[in-house]
Amino acid sequence: MGLPPGSGRITAEILRIAALPVGVRQRAEALIEALRPVLRHDAAWLSLLDPERWLQEPVAAPGHRPQLRRYLTSPAFMAQVERVGMHRGGRPIRVFDSPVPVSELAAWVDYFEPAGLAEGVSMPLVTADGRYVGMLGAHAESPVPLADEDLDLLVMLTPLIAHVVDPMRTLLTLAGMVHEARAGVVLTRAGRTEELPGLPGTRAFGVEPAALRLIGSLLTPGRSWARFLVPGEDPPGRPALLQVTALPCPPEPPGHHRAMVLLGSPPETYGLTRRELQVLGLLVEGRSNASIASELRITSRTAVGHLEHIMLKMGAESRTAAAVRADRQGLYVPAGLLRP
């Protein structure tokens, strides 16, 4: 496979862009510019797939008018992406060798051709582990198509390009900041879960989907994180409490990720029983003694007894001090996760 001159410099520049501490839009713009020597484009776009709306979300479109940006987010454009086969992995496609005549594609007839563009290339962005994340398209006024060696370079660079704009990148960076995370998933706007590359899913530790939905609701607006205990299995088949760290996902395109849930071993529990950990969960919520008793279907006297044992074991001077410590250390089971 022959590669065009300057391939090494382009690769090095993409690696530099991948390391930039900026958002995906800035990385996408820098990436398109870095690829100019091979794409030789007058206009380009890079979009990320929103798998729940099944739409492409443009993150950069230098040289294109706002009308095209709006079209790229439409169901009509996604239908054409599927028709051409760009919704899955594959080799970049030039205009002249499109499997569908461009005269039948609204994107070309209504947008690219009227803008004076004569040739170009579209490529699916697929990560090294096989995840489709979006598309890159570049078009030029010159009718001369890219050479085969240019396409070979783009094929070689595809996993690296996809890595630069992969929506999971920021989430994996955040996950790496959580000490001893052993498993994790991402919750989406539709309540689905996506696995974090390189980590087993929460099902491996017996955490049920219903628990995950509740976990997402515990991240109240304005709260940057939440930490608590959930019932699970460790090892598989043996009941255990696991510590959850829940983090809201940054508001980056394509926008369907809502929260990240990471599992780890529990902290020191001071000999607290499961019932006492649930009482602490209600205490963290600000419940009164009477409310705790009602929720757990126990007498007020029993509830007070639990609280006295909790304060003694934790060395806390008051119920408020116990609640604050439990919240900071993630040392409680939310009421909805462990029923009496």
Structure commentary:
The N and C termini lie far apart (about 65 Å). Helices cover about 40% and strands about 20% of the residues. The chain has about 350 residues and is α+β, with helices and mostly antiparallel strands. The longest helix has 18 residues, at about 150-165. It folds into two domains: about 5-165, GAF domain (Beta-Lactamase, 2-Layer Sandwich); about 170-335, Winged helix-like DNA-binding domain superfamily/Winged helix DNA-binding domain (Arc Repressor Mutant, subunit A). A five-stranded antiparallel β-sheet has the order 2-1-5-4-3, with helices on both faces. The chain has a five-stranded antiparallel β-sheet with strand order 7-6-10-9-8, sandwiched between helices. The chain contains 13 helices and ten strands. The mean pLDDT is about 90.
Short note summarizing the structure:
One of its GO terms (biological process) is regulation of DNA-templated transcription. It holds the Pfam family GerE. The protein is of the alpha+beta class.
Topology readout:
Layout: H1 7-18, H2 24-34, H3 36-39, E1 43-50, E2 55-60, H4 66-72, H5 75-84, E3 93-94, H6 106-112, E4 119-126, E5 132-140, H7 148-165, H8 168-175, E6 183-188, E7 193-195, H9 209-217, E8 226-233, E9 239-248, E10 257-264, H10 274-284, H11 289-296, H12 300-314, H13 319-329
Antiparallel strand pairs: 1-2, 1-5, 3-4, 4-5, 6-7, 6-10, 8-9, 9-10
Helix pairs in contact: 1-2, 1-7, 10-12, 10-13, 11-12
CATH fold-level name of the largest domain: Arc Repressor Mutant, subunit A
Number of strands: 10
SS summary, helix count = 13
Return residue spans where pLDDT drops below 50 for at least 5 consecutive residues. none
Average predicted local confidence, pLDDT: 91
Total domain units: 2
User: How helical, in percent, are the residues?
Assistant: 25-40%
Strand order of the largest sheet: 2-1-5-4-3
Shape: elongated
The largest sheet is: 5 strands, antiparallel
Radius of gyration: 26 Å
Order of helices and strands: HHHEEHHEHEEHHEEHEEEHHHH
Strand content: 15-25%
CATH architecture of the largest domain: Orthogonal Bundle
* Terminus-to-terminus distance: 66 Å
